[in-house]
Structures are given as C-alpha cells and as structure tokens.
Amino acid sequence: MRSIVRLLSYVGSFLLARALLFSSPLVLASILTPDAYAQIEWALATATLAAALVTVGTGGLVPIVLVGSSASGTSIRSIRWHHLLVAGIALVVALLSYLTGCEVRLWQVPLLIGVLTLTTLRSIELRTNEHASASLFVDALLLVSMAVFAFLSTRLWESFGPWLGPTVVLAVLVLLLLRDLRGEMSHGGWRAPDLRDEWRCAMAAGIPLMLTGALATLITTSGRAGAGWLLIPQAAADYSVLSRGAALPIVAHQILVVAVFRKLFETAPKALDRLQTTIVALVSASSLLLWWLLPLYDDLLGPAFARAASAHGDSLLMLLAQAVLWSAIALNDTLNARSGSAGAVLRWSAPSLVVIFACSWMTFTAGPASLDRFVLIHSLAMLAFFVCQTAAMWRHGVRALQMATTACLTFLALFALALTS
Questions:
Q1: Please, are residues 127 and 265 in contact by the beta-carbon 8 Å criterion?
Q2: Under a CB-based contact definition with an 8 Å cutoff, are residues 292 and 349 in contact?
Q3: Distance CA 224, CA 204 (A)
Q4: C-alpha distances in Å from residue 383, one per residue of 67, 323, 328
Q5: For residue 310, what pLDDT is reported?
Q6: Cα dist. 18→136, 195, 236, 279 in Å?
Q7: How far apart are CA 80 and CA 122, in angstroms?
Q8: Which tens digits make up the pLDDT trace of 245-266?
Q9: Rounded Cα distance, 405 and 392, in Å
C-alpha cells in the first residue's frame, strides 16, 4: 500500500511539475508583448546551449561520483565549485552589463546561464539522492518564477517584471550552494591543491559526456531541423506537429528514468540490463498504446495534429517507433557515463553519424521530397546510429544485450506495422 502511495505521489508530482513547465511560457506569452516574449525565448535557447558548454558536462558526473561507480579522481566538491564559479562569473557579467547600460541581451543571457547552471546541478543531485519529486519542481523553477513575477507586475508593481524571477532564483541557489560548500571554504576553498587536481579530473571526464550528449541531441532533433530544410512549409509544419504528438512516449521514458535514476548508476550490470530492458519495453508499449488510442485523443492535440495524423497515419506510427530508439540511445549514454567509456565510444559513433547523415541526405534528395519518405529515411538513420553506437560500446566491453535487442525488435515491429497498415 505504501509503495502505491509513493508511486501515485511521484506521478502526481511529475504531472504537476510538467504542467507548470508547460503553462509558464503560455502565461508569459499572454502577459508580455510579442517582442518581449520572443526576447525571452531567444535568451533562454541561447543560455541553454551556452550553459551546457561552460559546465563542460560535469553535471553528468554527479551521479557517478555520488554513487562511486567511476570518475576516479573527481569529487562532488570540484563539480560544485566549478558550477559556482560559472554562475559567479555569469552573474558578474550580467550585473556589469546592466549597470553600464549595454543591450539587454548582454545581461539577460549571462543571468540565465547562471540560473540554468545551478538549477541543473541541484536537480541532478536531488535525483541521485532519490528526491525525484523535488528535482522535477527545480527543473520548472526558472520559467515558473518568470511567469509569477510577470503576473505580479500586472497586479501589484510594474517594476517587478519577469526578469526579477531568475535574479531571485539565482541568489537563492548561490546561497544554498555556498552552504553546501561551507566546510570546503574553511579549508582553503578553491585554492586547495587537492581541489584543483580534482577539478582537472572533472574537466577531463566531463568533456566526453558533453560531446556525447550533443551527439545524441543532434540525432534525435535532426528530424525537425531536416524537415525545415528539405520539405515545403506545409509538410514541415505537419512534421513538426506530428513529432510533438509522437513525443508523448518520451514523457513515459522521463517518468521511468527519473524514478529509478540512482539505480541506473548503482545496480549490478546484469540487473541493470534488465532494468533498462524494462524501461525500453514500457516505452514501446506506450508508443503502441498511443497509436491504438489515436482516434480517441487526436482532437485533444488540436485540429492541426488531427489533420496531419489523418493524412500521415503511417508516418505518425514511425515517429512513435522513433521514441523507442530515443529511449535506447539515452540509456546507452547513461551506460557509457557510468562505465567511463563515453570518450572511446564517441570516436566511433561521431564519424558514423556523419556517414549516416550524408547517406540519408543523398538518398532523400534523389527522390520525391515527401513527408512520408522523409520520416521513413530518418527512422532508418536513427536505427543505423543506434546500431553503430551499440557496436562501438560492445567493442569496448560495455554491453546491454537484452536492452539493445528489445529496442531493435520492438522498433522494427512498429516500423513494419507502419509499412503494412
């Protein structure tokens, strides 16, 4: 009974946090002028990319270090100090840019970099320490704070404005991180010789994780980018709305992964393979279930989705099948991070991706530029990348045979169903 209550509490927290994350931009868009809202979206997108670069993948080392499965020579204090240093520099740059009257972008982006740096660190630490529900709300903290202060500016005091939200969040997170590092500060802080060595180890271990994450993001987001380049506007719009609807199984993946986050780094290899296989199987089941229930919910996702799904039902099922590969690729990245093999695998998977993209582009441009043909080729490209990634891992002794087999077979089954339905 207690486990059921915990499960319901977690699922409820997940849905509430994601609802806040989803609704906050809508609140901002309804309160702010179009120019002001567009500026926020641009600054957020730029800061997200910049934060991933300046933190050098060290956030991905947190579960490895706390669980003690790898990352020899790296410590949690070195990761925290690095994030604090990045946030501190970003805050100083934002403050100087604001006080000197520079263009707003020159202080907005650094401010958001500081907030994203610390919220990401805090969220990963909470997940690793099995506080999954709290981590979900930390993920939503930035946009929710902006929406709250934007709303208050319309009701109480116009000087509040949305940008007061990230300022307050950054100040609170800096104080919390300083509290966590209080013991280190009394022993020399950043000047401690051991800390500098640990920081160098964190940089060396974090760079492959950063590049691996960028590669996975590239293969999984290349569909929308490619559609925008290669398809006519109407077909590109249809693809975008279909891919948004087909992303629902990815939500199932996120629910499962956040719930068992620590276990992914501390479970024994054989049990880990079974756990990852279960995740992939449940994501596969959710893809099939969503396709089967499509007539009942397509109108809920809007008339554009309903029209696109009616015209391209087979492509929608292929996009749902892609979610299985998305889940498996993400789990492979987690396995590589845990095993310390990200760098070695990257030397094989990165060239493979270049070849796959080149072959896919040549194949597509040699025939008619239809949406259905684009989805088919992109689906096969994702499968080819997953096979290359898995083969590179196998070569370096990192193996999850059950998970990889389940992912390939279920993807092929859904893919064949799409072709024959």
A1: no
A2: no
A3: 32
A4: 32, 11, 10
A5: 86
A6: 8, 37, 26, 20
A7: 10
A8: 788 888 889 888 888 888 888 8
A9: 15
